[in-house]
Amino acid sequence: MDYLGALAKLGVWFAVYPLGAWTLASIGHETRGLRSHALIVLCAGSAVATLSMMALALAGLFSPLWIGIAAWLLAGLWCWRARPWIGLAGRIRMHAKPRAKALGILVVAAIVMTAGVLYAFFPKESLLGERDEGIYAQHALHLLRTGGSAIDLQALGVAGDPAIVAIERGRAPELPGIYPTPGRWTFQFSAATPVWMAMLGSVLGPQGIFRFNAIVGVLNCLAFFVLVRRILKPSQRVWAIAALVVYALQPAQVWISRNSLSEPFCSWFVLNGATLAMIALARRSRVLAASAGALIGMAGFVRIDAVIFPLAIVAAWLAAVAVDRGRRSERFNPALQEIAFGCAAVTALALGYFLAFVQPYLVGLADMVLGAIIATALCACLARAAQTSAALRIPRRFAERGAGPVALAMVALFVYAMWIRPHLQPYALIESKLVPQLNGLRDYREASLVNVAAYLSLPVAIAAGIGAAFASSWALRGTPGSIRTWVLVFLLVPTLVYLWKPMVSPDHIWAARRWAPAVFPACVVFAALGCAALSRRWRASYAYAAVAVVSLALGANLLWLQRDTLLLREDAGMVAQIAAIAGQLPRDQVSYVVAAGPLASALITGFGARVVPVASASGPQADAVCGATARGCRLVHFAGMDLGRADAVEVATLRIRRLRRITSMTPLAHGAHEEISDWKVVQIGP
């Protein structure tokens, strides 16, 4: 029966494509034609499935078994209705014959498979709530155990405990990543990523939770490759292979695809949405454009900082219509504003979700969110006005004359950001409502471009600067057309924002997560454009040889940069070690974790242990909680801590062994170290 249950739970993975195809077909005949774009169909299906599973999690009805059974039924019904096998061979020949050579397909497959092995076989098994990835993993385990996102203290049997009341009233520190909202506590982040982690964990066990991003990372490599090929001219698309090597193997991408963070899933929607937006602009389709905007807007359900993407879309809309070229057809491409409307609508729904269910997190980031909303609204008004009023557009002759100076200005900006800005003082300091303990420390925003170059390599960063200069010149001259102008500005805006102010803890490799959804892809795209522009007059054989040499050199260099951590399984065995502590605690009474909030949150949400965090094992608070029952209580504390209690009887000593990479304020730190801590479980009283 276990095998049958596991097979049933697998249904959701086989139903993503049918769900996407059915969704697109139901929208209209224009979207029905996207069936040959497999990644876009998968993205649409994953969007619908994500929203459905999030709704089930909010309602407390999340059940991998029944979700899987329903998914199998949906997949079977779609196969019966669509009969996709009919004419399959002909469709494969039609779409595959003119597009790619066998050698190119093999090279791309080898790159993606190499990346997939690096992503999937060396996961980071984070569970402690000291940083965000542990909270996502806890949320997934909580979903598997309870079927809902809310943390029901009444069901746990700890509601009303004096220590819990102290947290709810602000008299004691909150647990990391958990908000003490009235009645039921709330996880800090969206459930979009944890629901998928839970679905994979239901089949593969807890280890499956930490491998979901490996699947998404491989899909992101394919989606990125498709996007780069569409941006480059047909004669220059060989550079997409070199771009794929850099994107797939650069250290931050490898690390984050092994992790349980939400950036890879956010990138999935952004990359596919951008590709669909280019298709919509080429076909001048309102329906496709709104669908593209909706896919990009889905990133807002995954990460709240995805509010930057509506701003990027309206800025790209403005750039596409800002220069008066006398071509009304381009200026009034109906897809331009529909992309913005589709993204704005879905982003508004995402913000409504955070407002209703994760309100403290939204309030903590209110300044950023409101700033992005205001900038988006102003930019959208300006773009609409430029479409309708010639007086607000730049005359073509002025734009062409200004193309050269703008390109030089972009080069100057690159030089400033790379070699001048890092040394200018006074340095900016962290100001955070969510993590106030970091306030007053340097945030290292001045070194953003230098740090990005450390991950991608300096040659790639320089090529990106050259590509950005060429792209800005082309945009003013109208050389790439409004479609490429749109996508290049869409990539450029969030890149500039996050290079200016990353808004993340500055220690590496952690700081690199902020650049994963937008900055790294954009820099690699611009680098490919720069290389393509510099080699545009070369013979095809020379270009192929150059791509081969560059790809091998960059790939080897990127892997060498990770030589100390490439085969490292960070925090291996963490789930089993914390489960061992949970196993020492009684299920029929409350236990207490002393001065260890991350461990307490992992025990409560990950394993459903009836534990409550306390700041100290002695004093009025501890005396009250431990003296409330004639049976006494159990305490979990660090082995080196002096409890100051004569009535403490040791029950067990358990060890947490952590293998971790070395971190630093400048990338890339090499090496790993082992942290060992002993934890005692003691009985207080009878």
Textual characterization of the structure:
Helices cover 62% and strands 8% of the residues. With 686 residues, the chain is an alpha/beta fold. A five-stranded mixed sheet has the order 7-6-8-10-9, with helices on both faces. A three-stranded antiparallel sheet has the order 1-3-2. α31 links the parallel β6 and β7. The protein is globular and about 90 Å long. The model has no long low-confidence stretch (mean pLDDT 90).
What value does the average pLDDT take?
Answer: 90
Count of separate DSSP helical elements: 32
Work out the strand percent. 5-15%
Instruction: Work out the helicity level.
Output: 55-70%
- Given helix and strand content, the structural type is alpha/beta
Computed over alpha carbons, the radius of gyration is 26 Å
Number of strands: 10
End-to-end Cα distance, whole Å, is 43 Å
Shape: globular
Strand order of the largest sheet: 7-6-8-10-9
The low-pLDDT segments are none
Major sheet: 5 strands, mixed
Architecture blueprint of SSEs:
Blueprint: H1 2-9, H2 11-27, H3 29-32, H4 38-59, H5 64-82, H6 88-96, H7 102-120, H8 132-146, E1 151-152, H9 153-156, H10 162-168, E2 178-179, E3 184-187, H11 192-204, H12 206-209, H13 212-231, H14 239-249, H15 251-258, H16 263-283, H17 286-297, H18 299-302, H19 308-321, E4 323-324, H20 328-331, H21 335-357, H22 359-364, H23 366-388, E5 394-395, H24 396-420, H25 448-456, H26 458-477, H27 481-500, H28 519-534, H29 540-561, H30 574-583, E6 591-594, H31 597-607, E7 611-614, H32 620-626, E8 633-638, E9 648-661, E10 672-684
Parallel strand pairs: 4-5, 6-7, 6-8
Antiparallel strand pairs: 1-3, 2-3, 8-10, 9-10
Helix pairs in contact: 1-5, 1-11, 2-4, 2-5, 4-11, 4-16, 7-13, 7-14, 7-15, 8-11, 8-31, 13-14, 13-15, 13-16, 14-28, 14-29, 16-17, 16-27, 17-21, 19-21, 19-23, 19-27, 24-26, 25-26, 26-27, 26-28, 27-28, 30-31
